[in-house]
């Protein structure tokens, strides 16, 4: 990962992150004694290095713990994107994109939007799974309850 991840410190400054696959290093000698028995091969570890302006943080975990962390981050991201905005957003019909949710009593999600000259054909899907297409002038104001980020 690079500093362009959008991860920031408490002051809003970018925090570069490096993720590596490492192994626990076996000690080659102990203080005042011979080298320990090599024993079994070291377990692989995932290294996570955060480098904020205030210093460096280095953590490591097992691959299993890394998967659990990734799953928790994914759940939190989906919850944040699914949470209703503080107030509805109004966009022109020509700016609708897949995943936008119309504000109203019933859930209506944009499946697709196709522009044909000055007309936009929007295919909506209801919470019950029904789909239909409506035509709008490209500059018609559509109020959305939720809008996914660009590129999703």
Summarize the structure.
Helices cover 13% and strands 36% of the residues. It is built from 1 helix and 9 strands, in the order βββαββββββ.
Indicate the topology:
Layout: E1 17-23, E2 44-50, E3 57-61, H1 63-82, E4 89-92, E5 101-102, E6 108-116, E7 119-126, E8 131-137, E9 141-146
Antiparallel strand pairs: 1-2, 2-3, 4-9, 5-9, 6-7, 7-8
Fraction of residues in helices? 10-25%
**Secondary structure: number of strands:** 9
Order of helices and strands: EEEHEEEEEE
Choose one word for the global shape. elongated
Report on the architecture of this protein:
The protein is mainly β. Helix content is 13%, strand content 36%. The chain has one helix at residues 63-82; strands at residues 17-23, 44-50, 57-61, 89-92, 101-102, 108-116, 119-126, 131-137, 141-146. The chain has a three-stranded antiparallel β-sheet. The chain has a three-stranded antiparallel β-sheet with strand order 4-9-5, with no helix packed on it. The longest helix is centred in the middle third of the chain and has 20 residues, at 63-82. It is elongated and about 70 Å long. Residues 25-33 have low confidence and may be disordered.
